[in-house]
Structures are given as structure tokens and as C-alpha cells.
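Q: Hi! First time asking for a complex rather than a single chain. Here are the components, and I think there are two in total. Is that enough to go on?
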Amino acid sequence: MSDEFQIKNLNAFYGSKQALKNINLDISEKTITALIGPSGCGKSTFIRCLNRMNDLVKSFHLEGDILYQGTDLYSGKWDVIDIRDKIGMVFQKPNPFPKSIRENITFGLKIRGMKDRNILEHITEQSLKKAAIWDEVKDRLNDHALSLSGGQQQRLCIARTLAVQPQVILFDEPCSALDPISTAKIEELMLEIKKDFTIIIVTHNMQQAARVSDQSGFFLLGELIEMGKTQDIFTNPHDKRTEDYITGRFG
Amino acid sequence: MNEKQRVNRKKLNKSLDKLFLILGFSVTLLALGILLTLILDIVQDGWGRLNLDFLTHFPSRKPQEAGILSAWVGTLWIMTLTSVIAFPLGVMAGIYLEEYAPQNRITNLIEINIANLAGVPSIIYGLLGLGLFVRFMHMGRSVISGGATLALLILPMIILSTREALRAVPFSIREAAYAIGATKWQTVRHQVLPSALPGIMTGTILAMSRAIGETAPLIMIGALTYIAFLPAPPLQSQFPFLHLNGLFDPFTVLPIQIFNWVSRPQKGFFEDAAAGIIILLGIAFLMNAVAIFLRTRYQKKIRW
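A: Yes, that's all I need. Here is the structure of the assembled complex.
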């Protein structure tokens, strides 16, 4: 398996406040990587570096290298639109567009110039099926997306991301606003789509990390304390702080 | 404080409470009453003159034959031109300032000045219109000068309401669009602007209903008070069907016509003025009603 991402000596700042300290890690393609850690430890900041979502924050800047398929994302060789073409993102709070279910899926295709109705129709169905929401919405694709429940909205957002065929999908605490049943559905679908996508997930839920991920990283106060196979991290952590966090002694 | 004092105090508190309620109610009633009296008075004076002839006749020396044809057609021209000029300019400026402009001193300066411009007395805009459009740009005392002047007047209001409407669109919608690879313009055009449009429309219509009653700036640029012909109509039967010569014709508008009639000594013109006011009020109410309708309708439709 080749490395999709290679992160070298990454430091990130909001103004003068340092949010990430000297992060080094590699992420292989077609795996699920979970990032865990207490609130404010920098894991969301980290994941938002990977599709340059932090560009929207004015005071933000970073140092170091984030190589994606061998090329630095911040080097000027990548256009930010091309990056997001390859690297999709699902957010903490479901954020469907205030339009119909169908339009939520087709927006990403239409802005790429796709017009053929049959193809749009086909991709809409495929994406909704992959996101395990097709059966619930197939009879009401023209309904307003905000008439769906929170869990359905989040799966719609996942379908919207799948529709534009990225290679990587970043999940920023995708289940923190959802009930356990919706959470289970989303975990199941992550395992399902893993064969086609590289997945990186930020989560507060350690059971979730243990259930879905191949490798895990533990963040604390902006540092990556430990990174390794999920099984090792959860059963045999090397660092005392990781152990304390996982066993619930703090955090 | 003994028991009796407490009871008395409570009684006093309750009476004060009631007193304020009565006071507030009567003040509200008074305000509404005055407005209603004015409207009733106007309707009483003007109702007899309201008929089709009044709408289709030019002003005349004889009050019974006078009509407001040139005034309402002029108002229609001016309002159309004002909105055609001010709406795109205001919305584009609003989008630029809210979504694109870098946060720096120049942007700040522009923002402060736009807010100030919204409060500048309208006669100042009349002076500006006279100097800029009528004299410098040689557009004459024409409909286009009038429309452009009123467009300048409402431009700050449209920019401000556009910005406010854009700001009300949650940031998560922008993030969602960016995250699936939309450019800034695609995000604004397809997601942010449609969500903000009802707010922008409401602000624009309210600004327009202010412009429709403006008299001072139009007198300033030289709108006529007596006029017995219309600007050339834009649609004609010969090729190329669209003629814009009318843009450079002189004009009058409803408030100016009303003002002109009110200042005449004859009782008959007073009735004409009242009838004109009814029509002007009717148009202004209608525009406000449309604004309220748009607001409630889309507020129900868009939920975050």
C-alpha cells in the first residue's frame, strides 16, 4: 500500500497561538485513520489542513509539508479547487444545502459541467445507495433536504461527497450530533466504502475509533502523542498519556 | 415596613402597572388615530375625483378636467429606471463588500461611508444629480437624470440590506459548497445568493417605496410641475421596436404634481391633490405589502 499523505514537521497557528506542534505522520490509501483526543487538541485543525479548509480562516497559517500523492498541498502546484475535487469532507453538523434532496447531490456535478440528465440521475441514485439512504428518500427526491432527520441529513451530506468521486474523504466528528442508530449506519457505510476511498475520521468517541479504524492517532494539546495500528493503540499503548486517555482517566 | 404598608405598596404597584398599560394603549391609539383621520380626510376630499378620466387626462387649468396621466407615467418611468440602475449595482457592491473585499482600512472606510450615505438628506442627492447628470453628463432635465439621481439615493440602502441578507446565511453552507470543490463565485451564485435573495428583495422594495415619495431631489434636477405630454414610449410598432428616446424627455412625478395642486388657491385642485395622494399611498402600501409577503413566504421556506 502506498502512502496517500505524508505529513512532515507540520506546525499550524491561529494568529500567534500555535494549534499544531511538529506533526509527523503518514496515511496509506484505502484505509481508515481515526484521530482521537480531547476537545481543543488540534485534531479538527489538522484534518482541515488536508483539504485547505483553514484557508477560510484569515489569521491561520502553517509551516511544514503536507504531501498528497507526493506533492505539497500548499506549494502552489495544487490549486485549492483541485484539492477539494480529490479530497472531500463531511462536517460535524449536517449542512445540506437548503434545496431539494436531488439538488444537494447534483450541485457538485453541475458545477463540474455535467448536464446529461440520465447521468445525473444515475449518479444521484448510486451515491444515495452507497450512503445507505436511498430506500428512505427514493420516493421524495424533490423534497426539501431540511425535512430529513439529522441522521438522514448527515448521510445525504456523505452521498453529496461521494457523488463527486473524490479519492479521500475527511470526516470531522460526523456522528457527534447523531443518535446511536444513525451512528451505527454511518460506521457501517464507512467500512463499506473503505475499499474505494481513503478515510480520515476525527472522533470523540473512542469506541467508534476502535470499531472502524485501521490506524489511530492520539492528539493532545496540539501534539501527536502516538500513532499506530488501532489494535495496538487500544490494547497496548506505548505512551502513558495515551493509556490514561483511553482508559478514561482524563479527557 | 409593617403589614399594612406592604399591602398599600402592593396596591400602588398594581395601579402604576395599570396606569402604564392605559398610557401606552392611548398613545398607540392616538398615533393610529391621527394616521386614520388623515387618510379618511384625504379619501373624503379626493374620492369624488377618482375615476378613469382622472388617470387618463393631462393636468389642466380647469380642476374638473385635470388628471394625473403625466404624473403616474412619470413615476412609473422613474421607478423602473431607478430599480434597473440601483438593483444590480447595489447587489453587486453588497456581494463584493461582504464576500470578496479584504479586511483592511480602505474597505472599512468604504463601509463607514456607505452607512453614512444612507442618512444623507435627499436634497443633497438632488444637487449631486443636477451637477453630475444634468450639467456634466448633459443628460438634461430628463427621466434618465431623475432615475439615476434616485438610484444614487437608494443605492446605500440596497447595499446595506444586501450585506445584511448575505451575512444571515450560515457559514456552514459556504463550507459545504467549498468542500465539494465549488469556486467562490459558484458558492455565492448557487448557494449563498439564492438564500439571501428574499432579504435583498425586501430591502430593495422598501428602499423603492421611499424613493417613490421623493420630491426634493427631483425638483432640484428640474422635473417640471406642469407637463402635457408623455416621454416617448419605449415600445413602438416599427423596427427595431425598442426606442429609448423617451429617456431624455422631461417629466413630472406624482408627489410633484400633488405639491403643485396643493399650492393652487382653487378648491377644485385641492380635491385633485387628495385624489393624487390616494393613488400615491395606494402604490406605496402595495409595495410594502409585497415586501412583507416576500419576507414571510421565504422565511417559512428556508430553515437552517
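A: The mean pLDDT of chain A is 91. Let me know if you'd like any chain examined more closely.
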